[in-house]
Amino acid sequence: MTIHTITTAPFAGQRPGTSGLRKKVAEFQQPGYLENFVQAIFNTLVDCTGQTLVVGGDGRYFNRQAIQVILRMAAAHGIGKVLVGQGGILSTPALSCVVRKHGAFGGIVLSASHNPGGPHGDFGIKYNTSNGGPAPERITEAIYSNTLAVEAYDISDEGEVDLDRPGIVRIEQMEVEVIDPVADYAQLMQELFDFDAIRTLFASGFRMCFDGMGAVSGPYARTIIEGMLGAPAGTVINGIPLEDFGGHHPDPNPVNAAELIALMAATNAPDFGAASDGDADRNMIVGRGIAVTPSDSLAIIAANARVAPGYRVGIVGIARSMPTSTAADRVALALGVPCYETPTGWKYFGNLLDAGMVTLCGEESYGTGSDHIREKDGVWAVLFWLNLIAASGKPVETIVRDHWARFGRNYYSRHDYEAVDALAATSMMTHLRAKLASLAGKPIGSYTVDFADDFIYADPVDRSVASHQGVRIVMTDGSRIVFRLSGTGTEGATVRLYLERYEVDSSNHAIPAQEALAELAAIADSVAGLRVHTGRDGPTVIT
Ligand code: G6P
Ligand code: ZN
Fold it and tell me: pTM score, two decimals?
């Protein structure tokens, strides 16, 4: 068969965001759009001839077509071998695991994560490097520059690979191996967690509901939780990956997973509830009548890491994104290990993990993970909680309340103003930035501002600097108001307001979060002119 060089012209706007290039499916379906971006990836990679790549996605609409294009382009660029998940399926954490285990050169993840799927939904593509993690900014920026300069792409004209049949086939000189998407990942989980203890827990009648939200975590949860751990069939709901996620918005938070939250509040609720997102890297943990905030979950995992065999020796450090609550910082202090504060985006954890400076990482956006791979990992977090419940014999709510009693409670909430006019959102941020210098030392309501700045991160490993990573207004009691524009949306701009208040006194730990944070929300609005700029009366989503 023949390799063709096809003339093309650049498309505007192919700059990867917080997590890869995400656009509406229709945009990706334009002739040459995907090809240009993939060509830009290959133009950025040097020395990839003869190397192994891993390719897979969350099964959303356009996943299979995109994989066929990528395979034919990889063959045209002299890639030696591609490992592709059967059915085109690989969760983001499983891809990271496969890249590391097989010593691959890199991987291509096809996902728009938690963004809706289907023909009218979103699609996404992201390049991961040989450590199994998202490419750092210098690489994503180089890819972007290459999209602006691309004049032609190379592609083989060979036929489609049967993605459903396991085994090895060839395109040109390149080997394509269709692999079991779950096996390597499941084996890694078995090494990290006490599967015997969790099996005993399920055997004793412990009931759980895992909501796969019609996305890619289903096959992983079914194999591991129902299969290897012996949970009854039906423990995993919405467990088959569908091209449109069955109409679900596969973003595990109390708003989108309302069905699970209602189930967990019912009188006959299971003991434990969990959900994961489109590509299975996010997680939500729910107990009977209590949803655990991701920030608390990170802190609780850190405080109890030693219960899991993979972390028996203890943790060396924690990293959290700047808007994530400081609950983990308190645990780090108690353990005598460092806690790093990074910009939003899992890619910023990569250097710290590679350098062995941290074991655990987490973000407020329902992402938690560890140094076992280089992506956040939804099923991993769920298994950690199962291990913790099995080891402690305590229900989720008791685990959380005991944690607050020991470390204090960081009340936390995120208010999202979605699909706001992009100019209005940037102008709000510009006005806010201009005010920051005047805020320090100023009393506002019952708070006094300690400092206010626009977060800058200097990576302690490679010294790279990321600026404009979010405005934070920090009060003298440690309470915080943080403003950021989302880097993952595909419609207008999304303003995120993060609110945090620390309360040490356990007699004050039962206040509803929105009530506890109401004054900070009002201050945020008055300082930033949120309602005036966005033209909205309130947030579209509160989590
Ligand atoms: C993705 C990234 C995360 C990030 C989240 C929210 O899931 O992998 O690292 O925290 O998006 O990003 P955003 O820019 O929308 O707040
Ligand atoms: Zn995701």
Answer: 0.95
